[in-house]
Design a protein that fits this description.
The protein is mainly alpha-helical. It has 24 helices and two strands. It has a domain of 191 residues. Helix 6 runs antiparallel to helix 7, helix 15 runs antiparallel to helix 16 and helix 18 packs antiparallel against helix 19. It starts with 6 loop residues before the first helix and ends in a 5-residue tail after the last helix.
Length: 536
């Protein structure tokens, strides 16, 4: 049996960890996704199927989690890398190696929240460095601060991955090889139960109390009618479009917008090349210097600096404009920010500084709501459930699907920028026209239908318990063995998965438990019941 991994593989996975978090912060590429991480780690350690299974399970745990407003969530990427690498050392069959990997991955993911917080806090130093260089009128210093901002992010992933794989592999291998069979069985059940956490969290963000019957529609379609998941998703789309059509009262009213004023100013010297330059800076680097104090401000400022330099010809005006854009800024980076950024570029080009500042303040909240709804509640859960299902079956396309999602988000940044640039101040009127509220309602309705179908299709929790009963057959009493799961299915198919999800939902929404507390309870219940043979 191998004693561990060499320094070369540890360095490779550490470099991958650094690249993956930077790719997520910049162009929103999904190399940081746990399924992708599991597959990459599985390939280099010789067990891609194991990596897909570990990553797929962690993906389902993360369904309802999102970095709303910069919140920290468990780092399932690092958990997938370390969990897969450690479990692969055991050379055990998948039925044993998968729970071993999850037993390592879950605590690692939770521990990494502390390093994530440390990384986000450290970048505040570079934010204040940018303030210093703005006062000194040193644009190179500001650019340097933005560039250095990625280092705490990258090292917060690369360093723990490196040491866990290199130095920690031997002791961890000894640990997992001594896991008793009853605990392995319990951990396997835990892997089946933990996706309930992600679905329960997701339900807390959706208007379940208002639209609960939509959830029932999705559940009935899968559990009773056996409709494929893609059919459920298409049905959800059709239902919300019909609802939108029926809910329009009277003739459709167009959003009142004031057409952009014909500029009476002389033509500016901003070229399309300048606009493409700042768009690329924004779309690739906006969040590389994200920090707790002013979040995306430094990335926004650095991105727009070439426009400001051409518009404000004196050094004093130029750096005053830079200081304005070093103020707090935070919104959805892929769907909200490109549009706001494009509009601000248009306004700065016309030297409408006050309008540009007001637009940022007015739109970053509403556009965060739109972007987070599309990405966290609508698109990601749908992609993630399909991808996780494929991954758990050993299908590599699950990882490809998540990568495609990231490229879709990245692609949307470009038309988003040009929409903002061409609309300018009109965006405020559009946002005030009720569009955001309507869109959020429709997205939530569709998500409830989809989630209703996804829960029974993904959470594979059953009970192996059996009991005997006496029945009369041709005048003779015989003992008949009856599976408890068959009885439960006759009452309500997929009863156990539904019960687990709604336990999570109730504890989070009505008992106000923390996610960590609910996670620990799920782990405790599933491991004990699995070890006792009550659940599987």
């Amino acid at each position: 049996m191998e004693t561990g991994y060499g320094i070369g593989l540890a360095l490779f996975l550490a470099a991958y960890g650094y690249f993956a978090i930077i790719a997520l912060l910049g162009p929103a590429w999904q190399f940081y996704d746990p399924i992708v991480a599991g597959l990459v780690t599985g390939i280099v350690t010789g067990n891609p199927t194991l990596g897909l299974a570990v990553g797929g399970t962690l993906e389902l745990m993360s369904l309802g989690l999102w970095t709303y407003g910069g919140a920290t969530m468990p780092d399932f990427f690092t958990g997938a890398v370390i969990g897969t690498a450690v479990a692969a050392l055991s050379k055990q069959p998948l039925s044993v190696a998968i729970p071993q990997g999850l037993a390592v991955a879950v605590p690692v993911s939770l521990f990494m929240t502390q390093l994530d917080i440390l990384g986000r806090a450290t970048t505040t130093v570079f934010m204040h460095g940018a303030d210093y260089y703005a006062e000194k009128q040193d644009e190179r210093g500001i650019a340097l601060m933005h560039a250095l901002g990625n280092i705490p992010w990258g090292l917060s992933r690369a360093v723990p991955i490196f040491f866990a794989i290199w130095l920690g592999a031997g002791p961890l291998q000894t640990l997992i090889s001594g896991v008793p069979q009853w605990l392995t069985t319990g951990l396997s059940t835990m892997g089946h139960a933990l996706p309930a956490l992600g679905f329960g969290i997701l339900l807390t963000y959706l208007p379940f109390n208002k639209w609960w019957f939509l959830f029932v529609i999705g559940f009935v379609m899968f559990a009773y009618l056996k409709v494929p998941l893609i059919g459920i998703a298409l049905t959800a789309l059709a239902i919300v479009l019909i609802y939108n059509s029926l809910s329009k009262e009277g003739p459709e009213t167009e959003v009142t917008t004031t057409q952009q004023e014909e500029s009476s100013q002389e033509p500016t010297n901003i070229t399309k090349g300048d606009l493409v330059n700042v768009m690329l800076r924004h779309n690739f680097t906006l969040q590389l210097s994200w920090n707790y104090e002013r979040m995306q401000a430094l990335g926004f400022c650095w991105s727009i600096m070439p426009i400001l330099k051409k518009v404000y010809t004196t050094k004093e005006e130029y750096f005053n404009a830079i200081k304005r854009h070093l103020n707090f800024y935070n919104t959805n980076p892929a769907i909200g920010s490109p549009t706001i950024f494009g509009a601000v570029c248009a306004l700065e080009e016309r030297k409408e500084a006050e309008a540009a500042d007001n637009l940022k303040v007015a739109l970053m909240g509403p556009f965060a709501a739109i972007g987070d709804t599309i990405m966290a509640i609508l698109m990601k859960p749908i992609f993630a459930v399909f991808a996780a299902g494929m991954a758990l079956n050993g299908n590599w396309f699950g990882a490809v699907l998540m990568l495609i999602l990231g490229f879709v988000w990245f692609y949307l940044m470009f038309p988003g920028f040009w929409l903002g640039y061409n609309q300018g101040k009109n965006l405020i009127n559009i946002a005030a026209g009720g569009f955001i509220t309507k869109f959020n309602e429709m997205a939530s309705m569709a998500a409830l239908i989809v989630v209703g179908g996804f829960i029974p299709s993904i959470i594979n929790l059953t009970t192996p318990l059996k009991f005997t009963r006496s029945v009369l057959v041709e005048g003779k009493t015989v003992q008949q063995v009856v599976a408890l799961q068959t009885v439960l299915d006759s009452i309500l198919p997929y009863m156990i998965p539904i019960m687990f999800v709604f336990l999570v939902f109730w504890l989070l929404k009505y008992r106000r438990w923390t996610i960590l507390r609910v996670l620990l309870l799920l782990v405790l219940i599933s491991v004990i019941f699995g070890a006792l043979g009550i659940l599987a």
